[in-house]
Structures are given as structure tokens and as C-alpha cells.
Amino acid sequence: MAKQEDKFKKVISHAKEYGYVFQSSEIYDGLSAIYDYAQNGVELKKNIRDYWWKAMVQMHDNIVGIDSAIFMHPTIWKASGHVDAFNDPLIDNKDSKKRYRADVLIEDYCAKIETKINKEIKKATKRFGDSFNKDEFITTNTRVLGYQEKIDTILSRMGKSLEKEDLADVKSLIEELEIACPLSGSKNWTDVKQFNLMFGTKLGASAESAMDLYLRPETAQGIFVNFLNVQKTGRMKIPFGIAQTGKAFRNEIVARQFIFRMREFEQMEMQFFIKPGTQKEWFEKWKETRLKWHLSLGLGEDNYRFHDHEKLAHYADAATDIEFKFPFGFKELEGIHSRTDFDLSQHEKFSGKKLQYFDHEENKSYTPYVLETSIGLDRMFLAVFSNSLVEEELENGTTRTVLKLPAVLAPNKAAILPLVKKDGLPAIAKKIVEDLKWDFNVVYDEKDAVGRRYRRQDANGTPFCITVDHDTLENNTVTIRYRDTMEQSRVKIEDLRDIIKQEVDVKNWLMKM
Ligand code: ATP
């Protein structure tokens, strides 16, 4: 655990030191769970967004994008269920005065039991060596079965109680499990209360005529209310999708994990409109497609897993999370939800307008079902950034800090370095920058010895360093150094564009899907 916390602290301080993420309003002591993206962070974030947009919108001829407003008619949130049900159960510890999500306290308790299961598996793997059969072990070992049964019983009881709004039972469960405040160790809890996560604001000049509005807690509703506009004007035929990226706001109760859980964050969502009855097929299809998108970035297959929901939201008939191994363990990165016709039907009911699709093949109208993929851009940023940050032991006994960002996402693709600040080398380096900047983000760096500059660019995540030296004057060649392997080779200046393009081209990365 200490090691994990250590790693996470390094991620946060590296993000600040290298201009990726700053605490918002820092000179006024910050604002909790709100962050600003800095000069490098904004580029990384944009590249992730573009990578998603390319794969989801531009590579699908039946998916289009929109950009709906953050302010929306307040009845939308009544129809969507957010006014009545977008709540988290919160509980306070009377001694530490700290506030927690009751469900998260219980889930964390279960995660600890899961660690015990993993320990048993590890021990048995060691004991049985090559003949170890993991599936058989977890379905027959009595200790593991006991642990698993305990987890299942707890989660099922919590799920049922939350569904029935039996908050007293959620509290009893916390007490029966003797869950203590992680900060103070105290078990002195208040009752569990529901807390709505939407931020309210007002529209209008005078207090009497002002209209109560909400900052949108998800981008999805902007898609639903535009469903018919897009379908008609784009002459879209089912199945088709509408995608959008944009800010969402939630007054999160527990927001202590850097950009993992923010109060203002960005989502990348796609709603796929389908024929009722085909949702199971599409659910599987989108699970597979989205996982492939993640894997194309090469962050490691073992870092992803699906987590199917047992407790379904009011609108869903199937749901899964793609979880990623963050520095603090496996957590939700993306949600894939089969939302039935819930949203469109609700908007029909509340707006009084028909939101149906006429299917020419079937010669009838119906309310489409919806399959949703929803990923947090900031969480994706954290997944990429934390996974890429490594400390490497070098052969000469020193260590180097390197940010091995997938080259397609790196803020700067290359740094152009004159070996020395004289003999005409800077002028050649600057000319290379001028040439390459039409195609890629590149930087010029002449400060410090070249070895230090290499280290700086490693820590910044720049995939290539291009060094101009005295040989360049003779034969127009430069040294290109690869961030991950530290290998160097001599190449012609005129070949640089193609070499870099090969490594950073979105097409080459997405083709791996
Ligand atoms: P969680 O259970 O972690 O609160 P959620 O299930 O409420 O998340 P969704 O409503 O499904 O999340 O939102 C879709 C995606 O938006 C999530 O998978 C996550 O990546 C992102 N997301 C949700 N809440 C936040 C937040 N507060 N900060 C950053 N990203 C978020």
C-alpha cells in the first residue's frame, strides 16, 4: 500500500513539475477537486480527445458528433431522473468530521477481502508451480470460496438496501462489518443520508424571474434531446450513433484522488441508437470495440478488466465498467450501458414531443433503444500518465525518470537540440523546427549539456530528441535519439518528417485495433 501511495504521490508531483496539471486557483490555496491543465497537459488531453474522436466519429460512417450547451432546460433533469435519483449515500464520521460515500466504504471493505483471495492464489501458484490451475483453485478452495461468499453476501445486501432506499440498513451493515473511519479509526458514524450531486445555478436578471438551472452532470442528455434533430437533418438510419465530448459537473462527496474524481470534468460519450431487441448484441460489440481502442495504446493488457454491474441504474438493462489499474488499484475508467428506451421515452413524456424513428424496412415507428459508451477524459489522462511514468535503473547504476507516453499522444513529438550554442548549429536546429512544426508539435532546447536535455525531454514524455552537431555542417545528417530505448542513429535531415510520422501517426496506432 505504501508503495502504491508513493507512486501516486510521484505521479501528482511529476504532473505539476513538468507542466501537466496544476491545482486550480493555487495562489488562493486551491479549490478542492478542481484542477487546471497546464501547457503540456492541455496538449496531452487534446490528443486523447482527438484519438477518441477519430476512432469513434470519423472512422464510423454511421456516427456523427455534436456539441450541445452545458445549460439545458431544467425539465430535462427531471425527465432523466437526475433530480430525484442522482444521489450518493453519504455518511459522516462524528470524530474525524470526515464525509464518506457509504457504498464506497463497504466496497473498499470488500476489496480488502479480495486482496486476501489474491494472496491465497499467489501462495498456491508458488506451491503448485506449472501444474497450478487457477480456475479450479478458486472454485474449489474452501478458504477462497468462503471469502467470495462473504463479498457476494455483503454486496448483494448493500445493492438491495440502496435500491429500496433502506439507508438505515446500509448504516447497520457498516456497523456490523465494524468499518472504521480510514483516517481516525473511529466507528462513531452518523446516519446515512442521500445527497444530490447536481450543482444548481440561476438564469435571469432579477431574483423573481430567475429560472433555476443545473450545470449538466453528464453530456448524454444533450444527445438525447437532439436525437430527432440529428436523425432528420443527417438522414441517419438505425443503427447510428451521436457522440460528444464536453464538461460535466458533479458535487462529489469524496474527491480525494487527484484528477480521478473531480467536481468539474470532461466526458467523451457516444449514444448508439438501435432497434429494440438487438441490445444484447450491441452491448457485446461495443464492449469489444472499446476494449480494443484501449489496448491499441499499448498500456498493457493486464491493466484492464471488465466489471459487470450487479446493481443496475434505473435506466439500464445491462452495464459494465472497463476498469483500469490506477496507482491506487483497479477502478472504473469507462462505462458501457444498455439504456433501453428509458431516456427517449422519458423525454417524450416530459416534453410532449414524439421522439420516434420510422423504420422503412419494418414499415413502422418505434422508440429506439440506446447503447452508451461513456469515458472520462480526465480519468483517461490519469490512466495514460500514471502508467507511463517510470523510474529506470540504468546500466551505469544511475536512474532516469521517463514518461513513456504513447508517441501518438505525447504533447511534443520531438525536441530539436543544437549540441552547442555556436558554430551555426542553433540556426540549423531552428530551421528544422520551422520545417517540422507544420506537421508536429516540436520544441527547441539549447540550455544545459545535451545529456541533461535528454533527461529533461525523457521526463517530459518527448519521444524523439534530434541533435544537430558539427557533422551536420558537413553532411546534413543529425542524431535521432529514441526516448524509450535511448538508442541513437544517424539520419538525413530530409528523412526526419517520415521517421517521426511513422511513429506518431494516428492511423498506425488505430490500425492496431
Ligand atoms: P463513479 O462510480 O466512479 O462515480 P460513475 O459510474 O458515476 O463513476 P458515469 O456516470 O458512468 O460514472 O460516468 C461515465 C464516466 O465519466 C466514468 O466512467 C468516469 O470515467 C467519468 N467520471 C464520472 N465522474 C467523474 C468525476 N467526478 N471525475 C472525473 N471523471 C468522472
Topology (elements, then pairings):
Layout: H1 2-17, E1 21-23, E2 35-37, H2 39-58, E3 63-65, H3 75-79, H4 82-85, E4 87-92, E5 99-101, H5 102-128, H6 134-140, H7 142-163, H8 167-176, E6 193-196, E7 200-203, E8 211-214, H9 220-224, H10 227-233, E9 240-249, E10 264-274, H11 279-296, E11 304-308, E12 318-326, E13 329-340, H12 342-351, E14 357-359, E15 364-366, E16 369-376, H13 377-388, E17 389-393, E18 399-403, E19 414-418, H14 425-436, E20 442-444, H15 450-460, E21 464-468, H16 470-475, E22 477-482, E23 488-492, H17 496-504, H18 506-510
Parallel strand pairs: 3-9, 19-20, 19-21
Antiparallel strand pairs: 1-2, 4-5, 4-6, 7-8, 9-10, 10-16, 11-12, 12-13, 13-16, 14-15, 17-18, 21-22, 22-23
Bound molecules: adenosine-5'-triphosphate.
Adenosine-5'-triphosphate binds at residues 218, 250, 252, 261-262, 265, 267, 332-335, 374-376, 378-379.
Description of the structure:
The protein has 513 residues and is an alpha+beta fold. It has 18 helices and 23 strands. The chain has a 7-stranded mixed sheet. Helix 2 packs across helix 13, helix 5 packs across helix 8 and helix 7 packs antiparallel against helix 8. The longest helix is centred in the first third of the chain and has 27 residues. The protein binds adenosine-5'-triphosphate.
